[in-house]
């Protein structure tokens, strides 16, 4: 029930971790600050990630908490 500041976003497959975005200073400039219940769409282009593979998305907060979810192909 408190805001969550996001520090990093990753895409994972079985053998590779793709770092999508990382805040340079999470205290003063997180990637995004989410309020409870808030949903945000972040668009990243020009990612060099192969298709036809199952992935997981990992989000890391500024306090070190993580959340992961499967993305499919």
Radius of gyration (CA) equals: 13 Å
User: Which word captures the global form?
Assistant: globular
Structural class label: mainly beta
Secondary structure tally, helices:
0
Order of H and E elements? EEEEE
The helix content, as a percent range, equals: under 10%
Percent strand equals 35-45%
Note poorly predicted spans.
none
**Care to count the β-strands?**
5
Overall pLDDT metric: 89
How is the topology of this model organized?
Layout: E1 4-12, E2 17-22, E3 32-34, E4 55-61, E5 66-72
Antiparallel strand pairs: 1-2, 1-3, 1-4, 4-5
Can you offer a commentary on this structure?
Strands 1, 2, 3, 4 and 5 form a 5-stranded antiparallel beta sheet that branches. The chain is mostly beta strands and about 70 residues long. It has no helices and 5 strands. The chain has strands at about 5-10, 15-20, 30-35, 55-60, 65-70. The protein is globular. The termini are far apart.
The gist of it:
With 73 residues, this protein is an all-beta fold. It is built from no helices and 5 strands.
Keywords:
73 residues, mainly beta, five-stranded antiparallel sheet, 5 strands, globular
């Amino acid at each position: 029930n408190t805001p969550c500041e996001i520090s990093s976003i990753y895409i994972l497959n079985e053998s590779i971790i793709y770092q999508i975005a990382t805040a340079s200073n999470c205290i003063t400039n997180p990637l995004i600050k989410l309020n409870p219940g808030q949903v945000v769409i972040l668009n990243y282009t020009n990612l060099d990630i192969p298709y036809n593979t199952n992935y997981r998305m990992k989000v890391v907060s500024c306090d070190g908490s993580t959340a992961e979810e499967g993305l499919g192909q």
